[in-house]
């Protein structure tokens, strides 16, 4: 797994972790990338999340429907 550290440097979750340890950490937890289209639903109310997510670029919004 190749990690673009520029994407992770500003994320508080990774602050304090030496760069050489980020890739092994992500591999250990089974991290993978995924892209979403604008307006796509990530998870719906009542669903159980099977993982946590980190937004590397863009944004998301919470909406009650």
Features:
single chain, 65 residues, mainly alpha, 2 helices, 22% helix
Description:
The longest helix has 10 residues, at 19-28. With 65 residues, the protein is an all-alpha fold. Helix content is 22%, strand content 0%.
Itemize the secondary structure elements and their pairings:
Layout: H1 5-8, H2 19-28
Provide a short characterization of the protein structure.
By secondary structure, the protein is mostly helical. The protein has helices spanning 5-8, 19-28.
Oligomerization state? single chain
Return the string of H and E elements: HH
Low-confidence stretches: none
Mean pLDDT: 84
């Amino acid at each position: 797994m190749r990690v673009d550290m520029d994407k992770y440097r500003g994320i508080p979750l990774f602050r304090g972790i030496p760069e050489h340890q980020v890739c092994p950490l992500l591999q250990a937890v089974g991290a993978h990338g995924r892209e979403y289209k604008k307006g796509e639903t990530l998870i719906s109310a009542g669903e159980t999340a099977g993982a946590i997510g980190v937004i590397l670029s863009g944004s998301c919004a919470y909406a009650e429907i």
